[in-house]
Amino acid sequence: MDKREIFRSIAADVAKGEMSFPTSAQVAMQVRRALDDPDCHIEAAAKLVQAEPLLSARVVAIANSATYNRSGREITDVRSSVTRLGFQTVRTMATALVTRQLAGKPGADAHQKLAAQLWEHTAHVASLAHVIARRVTHQNPETAMFAGIVHEVGGFYMLSRASEFPGLLEDDQSDWIEFGEVEIGRAVLKVLSVPEAISAAIETLWDGFLSIPPSSLADTLMLADELAPIASPLHPMGGDNPDEGMKSSIDMAIGEDTLSSILAESAAEMQSLTGALK
User: Fold this and answer.
1) Sequential DSSP letters for the chain
2) Which whole number is the average pLDDT over 31-46?
3) Rounded Cα gap, residues 93 and 228, in angstroms
4) Fewest CB atoms within 10 Å of the CB: 14, 32, 134, 236?
């Protein structure tokens, strides 16, 4: 079975609902669904978050990040953190936990390193997307951060299945980029009930066309993905070594000096946000 057949098989399993999650990820998904209920109150939301210790820690950390703690007043309890963040951001944190744990515990050391690097990349893209949405493209920053968190979710799931298919992650990842990313990524996004607008932006990211000037959610993701200091292991041309064509597009779109200034102003914010997401 070649790689494309393997990707097709994995995507078919996901489409049929044959997709398992670690226990903590299942709890986080339940939290996310509950927060979608307009009748969910703050007390109930806090209790739901407290049911998952790792999610509780993430929510308190993000509430105290520079992005959300403008007053500098540190808070230490889940209820106050949920109040400060709002349900949309807490849903995003729950999704981040699901995404991070989707790969489970890859058996091979090489797979563990890939999963760790993929999460580092994801956290940076999410925090960059939040800043770029607010400062450049004028998209909803919370939506942009959510999109950044799930933009590589298919890759995390592929890592969870890699031990079943020896050689799947060996050599270059051209087959993943050409076929697996779209097929598996699309299927996993659907299972996770990611809103259509976000799924569409991620698919545009896969196509790789940046609008000039950048203004859409897809443009936000593309800029964040290319500017992330940690490359996706599934896209070796990103991160520290963006291709010259994309670099020129970014310069043309908003100007290198302008972008550098924006990112410099937001450096502390991004560092705090990225740290809370890891």
Assistant:
1) --HHHHHHHHHHHHHTT-----HHHHHHHHHHHHHT-TT--HHHHHHHHHTSHHHHHHHHHHHTSTTT-TT-----SHHHHHHHH-HHHHHHHHHHHHHHHTT---SSHHHHHHHHHHHHHHHHHHHHHHHHIIIII---HHHHHHHHHHTTHHHHHHHHHGGGSTTTTSS--HHIIIIIHHHHHHHHHHHTT--HHHHHHHHHHHHT---SS--SHHHHHHHHHHH-SS--TT-TTSTTS--HHHHHHHHHHH-HHHHHHHHHHTHHHHHHHHHHH-
2) 88
3) 20
4) 236
Domain count for the chain: 2
Q: How far is CA 162 from the centre of its chain?
A: 20
Q: Are residues 9 and 60 in the same domain?
A: no
pLDDT, tens only, 217-236:
999 999 999 888 898 988 86
* 3-state SS track over 164-212: HCCCCCCCCCHHHHHHHHHHHHHHHHHHCCCCHHHHHHHHHHHHCCCCC
224 and 147 in a common domain: yes
Cα dihedral sign, 228-229-232-235: positive
Q: What is the pLDDT of residues 20-37, one digit of tens each?
A: 677 777 788 888 888 888
* 19 contacts 157 by C-beta, under 8 angstroms: yes
185 and 126 in a common domain: yes
Q: What is the pLDDT of residues 93-116, one digit of tens each?
A: 888 888 888 776 656 677 788 888
> Is the domain of 10 the same as that of 142?
yes
